[in-house]
Amino acid sequence: MEGADEFMKYRSPLVSRYASKEMAYNFSDRKKFTTWRKLWIYLAKAEKALGLPITDAQILEMESHQVDIDFAMAAEEERKLRHDVMAHVHTFAHCCPAAAPIIHLGATSCYVGDNTDLIMLRDGFDILLPKLARVIDRLANFAEKYADLPTLGFTHYQPAQLTTVGKRACLWLQDLAMDMRNLQRARDDLRFRGVKGTTGTQASFLQLFQGDHDKVEDLDRMVTEMAGFKKSYLVTGQTYSRKVDVDSLSCLASLGATVHKICTDIRLLANLKEIEEPFEKEQIGSSAMPYKRNPMRAERCCSLARHLVALMADPLQTASVQWLERTLDDSANRRISLPESFLTADIILSTLQNVTEGLVVYPKVIERHIRHELPFMATENIIMAMVQAGGNRQDCHEKIRVLSQEAAAVVKQEGGDNDLLARVQKDPYFAPILGQLDAILEPKTFIGRAPQQVARFLSEEVRPLLEPYKAKMDVKIELEL
């Protein structure tokens, strides 16, 4: 039972349970080792073009075997040689006997290792950016729809002045927009390691080209362009600077912090029954409590976001301990931290897109919570109305203070509803403004410029950010629960 063997060993849930096929493939062995072969082909083509004795037949032979990797042979070679790159050089050479003498000519292991990592980082960002754009788009639609729906604002998780549901979503959007710009910058800042040799001096290539510096520079430029990069790093050690990994993973960790905050907010609002994430008809919230509707998607995002944030420590420490031109204590760590960061960010964005496509708002619950708190918040407006009707500000303040304390006692000590409004209506002192009370207590008079802020923010900052991704917006996420 060959398939059963899969259940006898650890499988990363990031791949087996969560991440998309595209991102799982991006960090797969097949992508990695076929990219190594591509890089050997690029190197041979450029070396041939610059005059080294390499034939068209050798290049054609390499190209015809670019993808048919004998993984079993490579594993056996690695067991013997204890070196992954040389194991794959030998495996490639075995099926390319004519090209065998020129495969990896002048290169060091990091020529394929580091350059492939940079390609995977670039392609990983290219997978994440449209996903982040879709999350922002869905949330922008949500913010626009609820731009003027009043809701209780909270500071210290205590009721504060009103805001709107849409304005609150814009707080989430602002952070996501910052993440979008950070990811774009990190992706665009990536350069290629290029063709730099054992300690980054290009000495082996200078020897191959008999001291011709221009040809060495041309070789570096040509291979860089073949790999789809505009620039290579002008100086490297044996590896590209590990601060590049810090830059790449820091923007993903920052995205993790954003998503954790958004999904924590959604979980808090779900507890208040004001907003809920989508819930399938047959979904079970609890094995013991049939009535429960747990915010499990938001919880998954928070859970994975913590891992994404924690992974940031790896590249920081790795960059700090790269002795001189390089040490190999980066390798095992990077095999884990680089793929896991992108895989984790990938599933977080897929899950959050699912959430933002189906957020459910309960306006009546929101309204009830407002009614419960608004009389206290309206006391200043009541005082102003009484003064305009000829009352004394200090007398009115004292009256309202006493009635507010009595109403607060009913709420906190007796568990009753806020009856401040009823107390004001019964007190003859407030007779001059009784006809104005409904207008004074209209929630939309307490939301300030929230709707206008939403409209301006979406038009000036959010929609332009999404313009490059318009063609990729229609993908809908069906989440595997």
Protein model, in words:
- The protein has 481 residues and is mainly alpha-helical.
- Helix 11 packs parallel to helix 14.
- The chain is elongated, with a radius of gyration of 31 Å.
- The model has no long low-confidence stretch (mean pLDDT 92).
Tally of DSSP helical segments? 20
Can you write the helix and strand succession as a string?
HHHHHHHEEHHHHEHHHEHHHHHH
Number of strands: 4
Molecular shape: elongated
Summarize the structure.
It contains 20 helices and four strands. By secondary structure, the chain is mostly helical.
What order do the helices and strands come in, and which of them pair?
Elements: H1 13-18, H2 21-26, H3 29-49, H4 56-64, H5 71-81, H6 84-95, H7 109-145, E1 150-155, E2 158-164, H8 165-189, H9 203-208, H10 213-226, H11 243-271, E3 275-276, H12 296-310, H13 313-320, H14 331-357, E4 360-361, H15 363-377, H16 379-388, H17 393-413, H18 420-426, H19 437-440, H20 450-466
Antiparallel strand pairs: 1-2, 3-4
Helix pairs in contact: 3-7, 3-10, 5-6, 7-8, 7-14, 7-20, 8-11, 8-20, 11-12, 11-14, 12-14, 16-17
